[in-house]
Fold:
Amino acid sequence: MIAVLDTNVFVSSFFGGNPRRIIDLWKTGRLTIGLSPAIIDEYNEVLGRLGLAGEPELKEILDFLALGAGIIFTADPPDLRIVKDDPDDDKFLACAVALTAEAVITGDKALRAVGSYGRIRVWKPSEFLKRPEINRL
Structure:
């Protein structure tokens, strides 16, 4: 399954909980993470702003990303205008569309308000982890 992670899920994974469980699904090959240049830029910007650059978990994740393990990348996602309350969140849906992902996982209220776009469902981390197909992986 391909999923796109909003920045709040990616960054929150450093602190444990459901976001960490989602990253663990990725690390164990049970989930493929979709990325685009805009998403990577935002991950880096927020991690730097929060001062997480020295965290061992970050090094492990960056090493895993560098291997290309469990990721799929789009260099040119479509230009979409879907998230009315926060257009900056459109990049996550655009990436999902370009990669035919099944899910966008987020804690962001504006992005969650979309609910779904085509066959892409927007999930809170806790909802995503309850899906039967995730528990069968």
In short: Helices lie at 7-12, 17-27, 37-49, 56-67, 90-98, 109-112, 125-130, 132-136. The first strand starts at residue 2 and ends at 5.
